[in-house]
Amino acid sequence: MTRCPFEFLQPKAPRALLLHFHGGAWVIGNSKIDDYWNAEYVRRCGVAVASADFHLATDDDLARTIRDAHIFTEWALDSLPDFGVDTLFVEGESSGAYLAASSLVQLSRSRSVESVAGFISFCGAFDFAGPASLRTASDSLGIDPQAAARNLGRLLEGSPSLSVDDPAVSPLLADLRKMPPALFIAGERDPIIGDSRSMHAYWHDAAGNADLLIVPEGPHGFERFPTKLAARTKTVVVEWINRRLRNDRQEASLMRT
């Protein structure tokens, strides 16, 4: 029996589909680890959630991990009618945010991504060359900067077909003019905060539709901690999604009149 590559959570009448990519430095995690938060998306936004079980690059085959993410995102776009919706959100945490962004960039080269109402990034990692801050930062809560840099280098060595100069691999180099509205969230004490700042600036300059939230005192992955800070940040995300859904409904209504 073929294993389903998704964990599904959904309300009776979803307003949209949200595709979730978990974090874990491309080598750990699974589609169920964020069930609690994904269930909150269902409850507070009324969206169906498909959490992707992509290939974990414990074999250093990062190219396969990226390919899985592209395939799953294309599946999500094609499957909107099956959920009774016409709107997709793509969301990811850390390395999962990279997979989400890379997939949108890749698909926008060959098809429309107008059905994507929003991209959401928590503490995203977008610089495959490895940001200088990652190599020079001292120990940080939530991430070991030097270990993360070594992991990235090993994964790239194990996937010689990947080039950090290829826009399909490094979203920071890609043409982002067709990208959907985006929300970038990063903790102030995250050693890869520069990735979120740079990606937001580049996205906004190209598409004019990116928001950035820097969370005071937040470390990498702060949104996973049972704190008021994490709860308030997640409320911002919920409100952002609901606002995007209202705007899309209003635009659709105007087009019909």
Number of helices: 7
Distance between the termini: 49 Å
Estimate the global geometry from the Cα principal axes: globular
Please trace the helix and strand order, writing H or E for each element. Answer: EEHEHEHEHHEHEH
Strand content: 15-25%
Which percent range fits the helix content?
Answer: 40-55%
Average residue pLDDT: 89
Going by helix content, strand content and strand pairing, the class is alpha/beta
Radius of gyration over C-alpha positions, nearest whole angstrom? 17 Å
Number of strands: 7
The largest β sheet comes out as: 7 strands, mixed
* Strands in their spatial order, largest beta sheet: 1-3-2-4-5-6-7
Q: List segments where confidence is low: pLDDT < 50 over at least 5 consecutive residues.
A: none
Essential attributes:
257 residues, globular, alpha/beta, 7 helices, single chain
What would you note in describing this structure?
The protein is built from seven helices and seven strands; from the N terminus they run E-E-H-E-H-E-H-E-H-H-E-H-E-H. It has 257 residues and is an alpha/beta fold. It has a seven-stranded mixed beta sheet with strand order 1-3-2-4-5-6-7, with helices on both faces. The chain is globular and about 45 Å long. 42% of the residues are buried.
Can you lay out the helices and strands and say which pair or pack?
Blueprint lengths: L5 E4 L7 E5 L13 H11 L2 E5 L9 H17 L9 E6 L1 H14 L7 E7 L9 H5 L8 H14 L23 E6 L5 H15 L2 E6 L12 H29 L1
Parallel strand pairs: 2-3, 2-4, 4-5, 5-6, 6-7
Antiparallel strand pairs: 1-3
